[in-house]
Give the backbone structure.
Amino acid sequence: MRWLIVFAAVSVFVGYMAPAQEVPETPVSHVVEQGETLWGIAREYYPHCHTGERVYEIREKNGIEPNIQPGQVIKLP
């Protein structure tokens, strides 16, 4: 039992000391389909985030106005 406690303590310590690995951010593009809106796209890709903030970020990243057109390719942050 004692070795189990020592093992757990060492595992936790090593976990905290290990360098964080950065995951490269893969750019995501979306081709706008008929009837889609920025709000709908933001909700689809970021369901657990504030939709309005994501819409703003998408607009800023792409330099677009609120209206989008079918066939338009937008980059998602």
User: Anything to note?
Assistant: The chain has a mean pLDDT of 80. Residues 26 and 77 are 10 Å apart (CA to CA). The beta strands are 28-31, 73-76. Residues 24-77 form a domain with the Membrane-bound Lytic Murein Transglycosylase D; Chain A fold (CATH 3.10.350.10).
